[in-house]
């Protein structure tokens, strides 16, 4: 590798921060907040960022916040972490388990937030870039509709904080810690859609709900029509009437080719080819990062959460703290390479 690459962030640069990142993550884990209620989380995150010299704009699309760091003229990059938790009663028995009954960080957003905070601190310390960094701390990813990404965009995210590309990371159970996974094109699926309320004339009412997932906008359109036709025909054959409520979930996550290749390259530089999986996916599961990618080029990538990790949205799930220094180093290097000062 080119010697010039030596100046960019390495894993070893963040190892010293591992303990404080772990503390931060566990703090977030202990005090989870549901979608649209991330007030204390946002406050806590914003205070830290301001302490490191970021210009923090609060209440962008609800409890969202954007932390900006300028270092001369250049391009702009946005990195996003989500902050909300889920309505699940935690069963991990961890000493830092949720103190909010019935609410837990079962999707690892505590880890995503802590990783980005780690990068924030490192970037403010070293400022080894030329241009602008916008760190997007997003609420309400799990909302399902009118989610945090949609609200931040509606609140002028990309006009008020212009950027050339946006990136996001989600942890991924079942894959070794520190493994980065990339897929260009459709990477994840639409979210959940509910086909509801099938009403019979005599004597009862039946209701049916289902989730439909697809990897292309065309298939998505076709599925909706097919399901409506099938259900209507089926109910009619019994002499019944039907009402179908078809709710659209999040759109497909479509990573742009150039930014995905760039993001993959940075991961290879950081952890080596052996710990980079590409192409990876598509993955079933919904993610509102898709909305950002409708406006900007970028990449939503995945980071292994361990082969022994419980699945996402499971009461036994826990984010793997070893990933904090991997994630923070990756974010830092991604910024340095994207806003290469040389
Ligand atoms: Zn989730
Ligand atoms: Zn998630």
Number of strands: 12
Low-confidence parts:
190-203
Q: Count of helices?
A: 10
Give the full name of the CATH homologous superfamily of the largest domain.
Zn peptidases
Number of discrete domains = 2
**CATH level-3 fold name of the largest domain:** Aminopeptidase
Overall pLDDT score: 90
CATH class category name of the largest domain: Alpha Beta
What characteristic shape results from the CA principal axes?
globular
How is the main sheet built?
A: 8 strands, mixed
CATH architecture of the largest domain: 3-Layer(aba) Sandwich
What is the CA-CA span between the terminal residues?
A: 16 Å
Structure classification: alpha/beta
Task: State the helicity in percent bands.
Answer: 25-40%
Bound molecules: zinc ion
Computed Rg: 21 Å
Query: What's the arrangement of strands in the largest beta sheet?
Result: 1-2-4-3-5-12-6-11
Order of SSEs: HHHEEEHEHHEEEEEHEHEHEH
Quote the beta fraction: 15-25%
Describe this structure in words.
This protein has 342 residues and is α/β, with parallel strands linked by helices. The chain contains ten helices and twelve strands. The chain has two domains: 3-189 and 252-338, Zn peptidases (Aminopeptidase); 198-237. It has helices at residues 11-15, 18-30, 39-51, 109-126, 148-154, 157-160, 217-237, 257-271, 289-293, 323-338; strands at residues 55-57, 65-71, 76-82, 131-138, 165-172, 180-181, 185-188, 198-199, 205-206, 253-255, 276-277, 298-304. It has an eight-stranded mixed β-sheet, with helices on both faces. A two-stranded antiparallel sheet has the order 7-10. The protein has a two-stranded antiparallel ribbon with strand order 8-9. A hairpin with a 5-residue loop joins β8 and β9 (205-206). α2 (18-30) runs antiparallel to α4 (109-126), α4 (109-126) packs across α10 and α8 crosses α10 (323-338). The protein is globular, with a radius of gyration of 21 Å. Bound molecules: zinc ion (ZN) (2 copies). Residues 107, 109, 141, 170 line the site of one zinc ion.
